[in-house]
Amino acid sequence: MKIVVGLKQVPETTNVKINEKTKNIDRRGVSGVINKYDRNALQTALDIRDVVGGTVIAMSMGPNDFAVSLQEALSLGADEAVLLSDRAFGGADTLATGYVLAEAIKKIGGVDLVIMGQQSVDADTGQMGPIVAEMLGISQVTYADEIQPKSDNELRIKRYDDNIEQEIIAKTPLMLTTTGNAGKPEYVNVVEIKNSFEKPLTTWTSKDMPVDSNRLGQSGSPTVVRRIMSPEPKERAGKMLSTDATKAAEELAGILHEENLLAEED
Amino acid sequence: MDQLKTREEILLRMVKSFTENEVAPFDSEIDQTRSYVNNLLEKVHDAGFYSLVTPEEYGGAGFDGRTSAKVLNILAKGNASIAVTLEGHYKSVEQIVKYGNDKLKAKYLPQSADRIIAFPMTEPTGGSNPMGINSHAEKHGDSWIINGDKIMITNGGLAEIYCAMVKTAPTELSFFVVDQDMDGFEFGKQEKFLGLTGCPIGEILMDNIEVDEYHLLGKVGMGPEIGNSAHDDARVLMGAVLTGIMEHQLDIVSEYATQRKAMDTPIIELQTIQRKVADMTIAKETTKLLYQQAAIMKDSGQDYEQEAAMAKAHGSRAAVKSGDDALQILGGYGYSLEYPVEHLIRDARAMELAEGSVEKMRTEIALIEAKSRV
Ligand SMILES: Cc1cc2nc3c(=O)[nH]c(=O)nc-3n(C[C@H](O)[C@H](O)[C@H](O)COP(=O)(O)OP(=O)(O)OC[C@H]3O[C@@H](n4cnc5c(N)ncnc54)[C@H](O)[C@@H]3O)c2cc1C
């Protein structure tokens, strides 16, 4: 199977700084790490490859220093890496980013599976996987918790949604987004780091793909960020009742009375 | 891409996440049970930590002095014992690299990926005074017969390979590499030490161990030089461990002092508390600068003996004092065995003795300084 894993480098701290003027994330002076859900995506890809064979290609769009995260992916076992980096890609929203990723995946050609994390921890949109799937015109399964190859072109996927558990058998070509339960990310081995430099890490710019320049970067981004704020944590409105049914019924009746929620009997 | 910088960044990212997930949550349990719970040692081994400083040509990762010290700084913030276990191993690997002949290196350096190496010098009759030791080796044809008793060895009992200092003549010190699998090798008693309790400290007994000539480190009589070199390398790493301990103390204290209130004010607003936190911060930062300076000098081929000694001499007392301040800031909780502050004092205290007592180090620092000026 030919598998592409989308990786994003995010600031190490959860305390993300926003540039007041541009409303973009200010990456200066903060060291990066691979977005945590993307570690699950990568591990899932490596696990599938180790069962059915094939190659895992790690891909990221971003500034040159994102190459460190791709090199880390190579140290973790990815076979190849592609960095999509160009000034023209800068300031992209999810749509413009998805466009470039989809074009790069088309350029690689013959990709059976695209895996991404469910969301990035800095921007938190959760849109990238679905956008890329739509642009490639392939099926998608989001928030996958457990993934097992069923055959060379089929996967058995479990996803837990609130109270339901779904099991899906999906055929490739396919796009998956992974939750924090998928795969069990391993630590980079100290010795493997240097060996990873023998694997190919290529950079593609806008010139390397047949892209429409109007759909790149800021000009290709319809999203306008008006304001960024941290929501005040809200007190939960709900009340917890006893776990004992009789007591709970008494408490509930009491509350309904107190709040005047029961129709008065004549 | 700057390959060396990238390598270091990937490594340090891993070490941070390893420390957060596998080390820090078990710090108190390691201290209380005196063991590396939750398979920590296995995880450390599997992530390749044993190979960190082993040269690439022997299958290692070949990281330099600065990077290896930073790694121990990060790990020690999670737990100082595991960092000292690795410190003991790294400095031993480094002496085999520096002083081992080709045959010895080819035999033991590849094994350093899986087997811990230790560095026994101290004996019941000699710690600060190396000439006080009784262990000795006698030449018989092409081999040496070694006898003696070594105590207080970092990783003693856990390590499988030992670089032991012995007398090859009444006033001549030399080092030999012995292996736990050799006839005549036995483990002795384990120390019950006050701090660094996760790290085994123990004794080995050598009873007519026979080794081939190539097990000699360097040349006969090079014991003092090799011992000093091991101390220098260890002291850089201990400066890093002590920095990690102080960062741990500062984490605890910062959280506590911003939440704990006196009347209605968080105690961090009180000048008496600020004074302590400021002193702790200065102590941490000066130790960090000293160990990093020593490591940079080491990597660039300069003499780093004095800087390494200063990193440990300054850092060990500073970390004990900083631990005392942390204890005081936490009030009664600080004095409780259920809070992780008191054991950080015990851990730091070990480093005023291990790898040379602070008194002896001060003598070294003073003599180097005076000599350089006259
Ligand atoms: C945690 C830990 C780990 C250790 N790991 C190892 C190890 O891996 N390998 C190993 O060989 N040893 C190890 N040791 C032993 C350590 O190196 C010795 O404890 C240390 O060298 C002091 O020796 P000593 O205990 O015999 O004390 P002594 O040498 O008897 O010293 C007693 C006191 O006299 C002072 N003193 C002695 N000589 C002088 C002098 N010339 N000038 C000024 N003051 C002096 C000392 O500073 C000390 O205060 C370890 C010790 C500890 C606590």
UniProtKB/TrEMBL annotation, chain A:
Residues 22-213 form the Electron transfer flavoprotein alpha/beta-subunit N-terminal domain. Pfam families: ETF (PF01012). Gene3D superfamilies: HUPs. It comes from the Bacteria. InterPro entries: ETF_a/b_N, ETF_b, ETF_beta_N, Rossmann-like_a/b/a_fold. CDD domains: ETF_beta. This is Electron transfer flavoprotein small subunit.
TrEMBL record, chain B:
Pfam families: Acyl-CoA_dh_1, Acyl-CoA_dh_M, Acyl-CoA_dh_N. Keywords: FAD, Flavoprotein, Oxidoreductase. Residues 8-113 form the Acyl-CoA dehydrogenase/oxidase N-terminal domain. Gene3D superfamilies: Acyl-CoA dehydrogenase/oxidase, N-terminal domain (1.10.540.10), Butyryl-CoA Dehydrogenase, subunit A, domain 2 (2.40.110.10), Butyryl-CoA Dehydrogenase, subunit A, domain 3 (1.20.140.10). Its cofactor is FAD. It comes from the Bacteria. Residues 231-366 form the Acyl-CoA dehydrogenase/oxidase C-terminal domain. Residues 118-208 form the Acyl-CoA oxidase/dehydrogenase middle domain. The keyword Oxidoreductase applies. GO terms for molecular function: acyl-CoA dehydrogenase activity; flavin adenine dinucleotide binding. Belongs to the acyl-CoA dehydrogenase family. This is Acyl-CoA dehydrogenase. It comes from Companilactobacillus mishanensis. The lineage of its organism: Bacteria, Bacillati, Bacillota, Bacilli, Lactobacillales.
